[in-house]
């Protein structure tokens, strides 16, 4: 499989790894740039490197495979971003797992990705127990306790964390892989691979399209100006409503704030609750909401209507952008939202394999037709 070119699907200078290090290292200096709560960047970055040593070896005591950046690590963890980041810190390849998968889909994905380590919540441990004997490559099971039963042979994540010193900071080549598995709507899940420098460059290239009008850096020398420009802007606080196993949730909702000194705020419920979202928006002064079409937008509008009927009022004036990708967002729902929010609604069309292809925008007093888009600058017919 050939690595993809990243969300922006554009060519350019290799600026990924060093750029990521520099922006990540300085984001704590930006207003509100605490990465994700609690703890902020100092705590987050210290913790990221602690479990990388055993996971990079793949078995808690072995050695890396020659010529390999690290092991593939499926993450069967609803909404736990720091553990995904740890895999990248240790040069492992994080593999997203749909936590609704049952035995056959789970076994297929782990086998197809050549994975040697599996990290999972104990509440999902029953299906792990049933498939582990079918997966001879698996050498390490790491369980995160969320109230489920212990899986025989698995090591507790916190114990793994406490038993190892952090790995030293690594120089990571741009050829290191990032992988995202599609949802399998055309059959079994498909793993799409990207060179990390292409992927990060694509995210930066997409910033302007997704409502962040700050010139992003194309060389290391441009990073100070980028950081200064971000510091002058209002605080960037993003809520990804889809699960982080979903490309839209991670690429549009989770990664951009962490690459630009902002804050990613996660909803606590495992099922989407629009009332929880709006309470979170008011409490955290959220500026961007990321959704997947009408499946999220319709209950969001319904919740606003219910609050109006009940005479409840929340301060939602911090929201300046709502971004959707991955499913249809109908015109009537957009109209209902823009009538109540002074926000720009960005509807993006793209794919896991190729990134963003087209976009449309709506705002108060500006009606747009359903599923009518303008091609992105990087798209060619």
TrEMBL record:
<dbReference type="InterPro" id="IPR000873">
    <property type="entry name" value="AMP-dep_synth/lig_dom"/>
</dbReference>
<protein>
    <submittedName>
        <fullName>AMP-binding protein</fullName>
    </submittedName>
</protein>
<feature type="domain" description="AMP-dependent synthetase/ligase">
    <location>
        <begin position="92"/>
        <end position="360"/>
    </location>
</feature>
<dbReference type="InterPro" id="IPR042099">
    <property type="entry name" value="ANL_N_sf"/>
</dbReference>
<feature type="region of interest" description="Disordered">
    <location>
        <begin position="1"/>
        <end position="75"/>
    </location>
</feature>
<dbReference type="InterPro" id="IPR050237">
    <property type="entry name" value="ATP-dep_AMP-bd_enzyme"/>
</dbReference>
<feature type="compositionally biased region" description="Basic and acidic residues">
    <location>
        <begin position="12"/>
        <end position="24"/>
    </location>
</feature>
<dbReference type="InterPro" id="IPR020845">
    <property type="entry name" value="AMP-binding_CS"/>
</dbReference>
<dbReference type="Pfam" id="PF00501">
    <property type="entry name" value="AMP-binding"/>
</dbReference>
């Amino acid at each position: 499989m050939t690595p993809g070119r990243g969300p922006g699907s554009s060519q350019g200078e290799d600026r990924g790894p060093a750029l990521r290090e520099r922006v990540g290292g300085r984001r704590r200096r930006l207003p509100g740039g605490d990465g994700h709560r609690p703890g902020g960047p100092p705590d987050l970055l210290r913790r990221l490197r602690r479990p990388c040593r055993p996971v990079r070896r793949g078995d808690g005591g072995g050695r890396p495979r020659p010529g390999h950046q690290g092991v593939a690590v499926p993450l069967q963890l609803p909404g736990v971003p720091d553990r995904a980041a740890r895999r990248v810190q240790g040069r492992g390849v994080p593999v997203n797992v749909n936590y609704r998968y049952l035995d056959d889909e789970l076994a297929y994905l782990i086998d197809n990705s050549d994975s040697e380590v599996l990290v999972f919540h104990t509440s999902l441990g029953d299906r792990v127990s049933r498939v582990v004997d079918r997966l001879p490559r698996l050498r390490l099971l790491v369980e995160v306790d969320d109230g489920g039963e212990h899986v025989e042979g698995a090591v507790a994540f916190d114990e793994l964390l406490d038993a190892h010193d952090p790995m030293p900071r690594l120089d990571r080549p741009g050829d290191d892989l990032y992988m995202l598995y599609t949802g399998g709507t055309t059959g079994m899940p498909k793993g799409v691979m990207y060179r990390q420098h292409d992927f990060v460059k694509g995210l930066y290239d997409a910033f302007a399209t997704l409502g962040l009008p700050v010139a992003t850096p194309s060389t290391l020398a441009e990073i100070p100006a980028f950081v200064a420009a971000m510091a002058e802007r209002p605080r960037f606080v993003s809520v990804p409503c889809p699960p982080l196993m979903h490309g839209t949730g991670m690429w549009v909702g989770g990664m951009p704030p962490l690459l630009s000194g902002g804050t990613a705020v996660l909803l606590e419920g495992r099922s989407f609750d629009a009332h929880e979202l709006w309470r979170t928006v008011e409490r955290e002064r959220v500026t961007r909401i990321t959704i997947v079409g009408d499946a999220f937008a319709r209950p969001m509008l319904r919740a606003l209507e219910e609050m109006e009927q009940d005479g409840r009022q929340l301060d939602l004036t911090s929201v300046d952008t709502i971004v959707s990708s991955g499913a249809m967002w109908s015109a009537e729902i957009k109209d209902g939202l823009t009538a109540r929010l002074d926000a720009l609604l960005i509807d993006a069309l793209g794919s896991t394999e190729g990134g963003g292809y087209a976009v449309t925008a709506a705002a108060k007093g500006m009606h747009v037709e359903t599923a009518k888009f303008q091609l992105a600058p990087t798209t060619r017919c």
